[in-house]
Known about the structure:
Layout: H1 2-21, E1 46-57, E2 61-72, H2 75-93, E3 100-117, E4 125-143, H3 148-157, E5 163-170, H4 174-200, E6 207-218, E7 224-228, E8 250-254, E9 264-266, E10 275-289, E11 298-301, E12 307-310, H5 312-315
Amino acid sequence: MKNILCFASVLLFQFTFSQVSGNINYQNQARYIDNNINIETPSTTDIVINIKGLANVKAEKYVAIFSLTQVGETAEEVNELMDKRINTALSQIKTNKTIETYVDMVSFVPVYQYNVEKKLFSKKTYNEVPGGFELKKNLHIQFTNPSQLNEIITVLSKNEIYDLVRVDYFANSLETVKKELMNKAKLALQEKVKNYETMLGETFANTAKSINDGFKTSLPTEMYKSYEAYNSSTLALTRIANVNQVAKSTTLYYQPILDKEFDFVINPAILEPVIQVMYEIKMVISKEKKQQKDNKSYILITPNGEMRDLNIRNAQ
């Protein structure tokens, strides 16, 4: 009896633990990199010091793009049906003064179909003839609160507008955030240089140095991944068995850049998709001392009173 209880406890623990990690772990393709630290062997000539910073910036404005397609037998019919759908939707959306809209014309082309020409003593002939027109437009909607998107989708769906192409994120504070990243990275770099000097028992004041830095920005639109959550059966089947598999549901989820490899993070807690700005500064310090330049000049006065410059360095 005790063995049964222990076995049941182990099963319960394993089930509970797997649920905490999320259903993504059902995917065979989901692989996580080795988390062990691995430091390279130090160079005998140069010292490379780098600082990485990450800032999570909440968007201030959003632009959602919806795609519309309308077909009809005549150009007048296509335009009339399209305008009716768009105008009805916009009249309801624009009641909120914080929302701005823009209609983008994409394409307006004729649509062709085939007519069959039957003959007695030959094969059928298919002739391509005009069958109507197809009109495509994109509806751009700018809003400031993410919760407004639900209201917008509700209005658009009532007017047969369903295709949400993408949502773009914008923030006016990116330049300020970049300056903050640079200032924090500068202080962190100076502190790391001092630590190296303390550990090596020397100063880098008279050593040759080179430095480089750069930014990279990741938008939420680029950071969505997909997976299928399912567990296949291990039932042994015979070769003559018929197996009908059902379509698996594909899930999309937001995967931000993890902050585990950065020296510092601005706004580390992420609740909603954010704009992520990365900054890296790298310094290379040469262990060879700088050559001191001799700026002294020497003048020789001849017995005739003439003055001549002496190149002492070449004479050595």
